[in-house]
Each structure stands twice: as C-alpha cells, then as structure tokens.
Design a protein that fits this description.
Function: Repressor of the lactose catabolism operon. Galactose-6-phosphate is the inducer.
Distance between the termini: 47 Å
CATH topology of the largest domain: Rossmann fold
Shape: elongated
Structural class: alpha/beta
CATH class of the largest domain: Alpha Beta
Radius of gyration: 19 Å
Strand content: 15-25%
Order of helices and strands: HEHHEEHHEHEHEEEHEEEHEEEHE
Helix content: 25-40%
Keywords: Repressor, Transcription, Transcription regulation
Protein name: Lactose phosphotransferase system repressor
GO molecular function: DNA-binding transcription factor activity
Number of strands: 15
Strand order of the largest sheet: 6-5-4-9-12-14-15
Number of domains: 2
Largest sheet: 7 strands, parallel
C-alpha cells in the first residue's frame, strides 16, 4: 500500500511515541520507501516540533498533546540519569530546606541526598516522598493537590499556594525541554506553575537532566536559563553547547 507523506509521518510519530525512538532503516523497511524519503519525513516532523533527529533516527518531543509517563522515564537513559543525579545531589552544600521536583531524575537525586544531617525536603512527587519517608534525619513535606496519573505528582492551586508559603535554600528542577531560546519548558500549564513557584521560593535553583532534553521545546515556558545557578547533565552534551548555556549565567557541570 502506498502511503501519502502525511500518513507516513503520522505512522512515524505514533511509532516514536510508543517505542521512545525510531530508526531510519527500520522505518524505510516498514513503510516500503527509500531511506532518503524517511529522512525527509523526519526533517519535516522536526520542523513541526514533533521529533528530534539523531544520527540514524529520531525520538519524540514532549508536547501539549504527548508526555511520557514516569514509568517510561524509568527505563530510558538510566545509567546517564544516575550519574547526573549523583552529581546534582553533591550541590546541596549547607542547604537545610530543599525542593525536589517530580520526575525520574529528581527521584534519583532525592535518593542520593545526604542522610547524615538534618534535611527538610519539600516535594510534589509521591514517589520522592515515599523514597524519603523512612530516611533518617530527613523530614518530608508533601505538597497537597490533584495527583497527575502519569507522573504521580500534585498540581493546581493547592500545591502552588503551599509552595508560596516557603523560603527554600535550594530547588532541584526538572523539565521536558531546555533551550537557550525558550528556557525551561514542560507540556502541562499546571506543572509549569508548580515549577515556577518552586523557583520563586528558592534561593538557589539547579536543573538536572540528560542530554536529550537540550534543544527540545515543549508547550509551557516556566523559567529562563539565567534563573539557574547550575545545570547538571552528562558528557553526551557537547562541551561547545554546554559553554553556550554557561554564557547565559549558570555553571554547567557535565559528568
């Protein structure tokens, strides 16, 4: 069956969102077209902000209509996320009150926080609260609100109102995308509000995320790059690109 370009591209986006990534060779075989045709489709989809191209393929960009679940995030780039989380946790310094964002990398940061001194952790994430609830010397304050099923985190006015009542030493923030042009973005306005409020409440803000987040742009902008004290990522982000981010203000740490 011969498909139109629109049908091919719909198939590519659907496959990318289901599996987490697509490969040019596999798509060419599935669709019965030349590899160059697939590459042309991927370029068109990248121009529309639906995928990011990689060497030999592409992966989906999270948007207002598509967001990966926490369960899916726990299966992708895990060794890289663990390295990034461990390095981010080392930036706690003498902070006594810490906000930990929703998401898998922040959850790994929470597990790497120091246990040998008193620490108060504020979070909207049920998994983060659960991971730290039994930790010695750690007090956990879980923000109330509506729980989003995909990420198991609270949102809406209850959450942001509680956050507005705090002055925090440090916020560990995640994002679905980070770019020099558009700052930090996330697909859901309610999530963006919680993240923005956490940054307003914190004296210091650290973004931690894997290399695939960089250059990606989602629906709702909640912070500029200049609001960050530090960015922690892996060496898979090229050093030249890391330097461009550092020129906007934050220290960029690659591990």
């Amino acid at each position: 069956m011969t498909r139109t370009a629109e049908e091919r591209q719909r198939h590519i986006v659907r496959t990318a969102r289901t599996t987490g990534a697509v490969d040019v060779n596999t798509l060419a075989a599935q669709l019965g077209v030349a590899k160059e045709t697939v590459r042309r489709d991927l370029r068109a989809l990248e121009d529309h902000g639906l995928v990011r191209r990689t060497h030999g393929g592409a992966y989906p960009v999270e948007s207002a209509g598509f967001e990966t679940t926490l369960a899916f995030r726990a299966t992708s780039h895990v060794p890289e996320k663990r390295r990034v989380a461990a390095a981010a946790a080392e930036l706690v310094g003498d902070a006594e009150t810490v906000f930990v964002d929703e998401g898998f990398t922040p959850q790994l940061i929470a597990e790497a926080l120091p246990r040998d001194r008193p620490l108060t952790v504020v979070t909207a994430s049920l998994p983060v609260a659960g991971a730290l609830a039994g930790a010695e010397n750690t007090s956990v304050l879980l923000l109330g609100g509506r729980v989003r099923a995909g990420t198991l985190a609270t949102v809406d006015h209850w959450t942001t109102k509680m956050l507005a009542g705090f002055v925090l030493d440090l916020a560990f923030i995640g994002a679905n995308g980070i770019s020099r042009e558009h700052g930090l973005t996330t697909p859901d306005p309610a999530v963006g509000e919680v993240k923005a409020q956490a940054i307003r409440a914190a004296r210091r803000t650290v973004f931690a995320g894997v290399h695939t987040k960089f250059g990606a742009v989602s629906f709702c902008r909640f912070a500029e790059i200049g609001a960050l004290e530090a960015i922690v990522t892996s060496t898979l982000l090229p050093s030249a690109e890391a330097h461009r981010y550092s020129l906007l203000g934050p220290q960029v740490i690659r591990v």
